[in-house]
Write a structure and sequence with these properties.
The protein is about 85% helix and about 0% strand. Helix 1 runs antiparallel to helix 2 and helix 7 runs antiparallel to helix 9.
Length: about 220
C-alpha cells in the first residue's frame, strides 16, 4: 500500500471512529431515558401509564422497522437543517444517532426489566419515590446489561457508518467503495476489512472488560 493510501486509511479510520462515538454517545443519552420510560410506564411499573407506554413503544418500533439506508435518505432534509449539508462525517452522525437511539432504548429496556422486583418493592416500602428507585435500584442493578448493550450498539454503528460511507459520509466504507471496489484496489479492500475487524474486536473486548468489572454477582 502506498503512503498516500495509508494516509487515506488513517483518515478514514478516524472518521469512522468519530461517527461511531458521536452517534453512540447521543444514542446513550437519548436511548437510556427512553428505556427507563418504557419500563416505568409498563403494566406494574413505577409510573404505570399504558397509553404513554403504547405510544412510545409504537414510535420506537416504527423507527426500528425502517432499514438504515432508507432512513439515511429520508432524513436528508433534517440533516441539512441541523448540519447544513447532507454529505460528510458530521452529516452522517444525524441519521446514525436517530437510528441507534430506538435500538439502544430496546436493549436498555431488556436490561432494566431484569432488575429484581423485590428490590424495587423494598425501596418503595422504605418510602423511596420514583426517582430514588431509578437512581438507587434500576440503573445501578442494570448497569452491566446497560454497558453490554451499549457495546453492541457501538459495534452495530460501525457497520452502519460503513453503509453511510457508500453515499458520501466518509469513513472506511467510503474508502472501500471508492478505492477498493470502484478502482479494483484489492489491497485497500483487504486493509479496510482488517481494520474493521480489529476495531470491532477492540470495542467488544473493552466492553466485556468493563461489564466484568461492574458485575458483582
Amino acid at each position: 500500500m502506498t503512503p498516500i493510501m495509508l494516509e487515506l486509511l488513517v483518515r478514514s479510520l478516524w472518521e469512522t471512529v468519530l461517527m461511531t462515538l458521536a452517534s453512540g454517545l447521543i444514542s446513550l443519552v437519548a436511548g437510556l431515558p427512553l428505556g427507563l420510560a418504557l419500563v416505568a410506564t409498563a403494566r406494574g411499573g413505577i409510573a404505570e401509564n399504558l397509553w404513554i407506554n403504547r405510544v412510545l413503544s409504537a414510535v420506537i418500533n416504527g423507527f426500528r422497522s425502517v432499514p438504515f439506508i432508507i432512513l439515511l435518505v429520508a432524513l436528508i432534509p433534517l440533516t441539512r437543517l441541523i448540519v447544513g449539508t447532507a454529505l460528510g462525517t458530521w452529516a452522517a452522525i444525524v441519521p446514525l444517532a436517530i437510528a441507534a437511539t430506538p435500538y439502544y432504548a430496546r436493549i436498555a429496556e431488556v436490561s432494566l426489566r431484569e432488575v429484581d422486583r423485590g428490590l424495587i418493592d423494598a425501596v418503595r416500602a422504605m418510602g423511596g419515590n420514583r426517582w430514588t428507585i431509578i437512581r438507587e435500584v434500576l440503573v445501578p442493578e442494570a448497569l452491566p446489561g446497560i454497558v453490554a448493550g451499549f457495546t453492541v450498539t457501538l459495534v452495530t454503528l460501525i457497520g452502519a457508518s460503513a453503509m453511510a460511507g457508500a453515499i458520501g459520509a466518509g469513513g472506511l466504507g467510503d474508502l472501500a467503495i471508492r478505492y477498493g471496489y470502484q478502482r479494483f484496489e484489492t489491497s485497500v479492500m483487504i486493509a479496510v476489512v482488517a481494520v474493521l475487524i480489529v476495531l470491532v474486536c477492540g470495542i467488544q473486548w473493552l466492553g466485556d472488560r468493563l461489564v466484568a468489572g461492574l458485575d458483582h454477582r
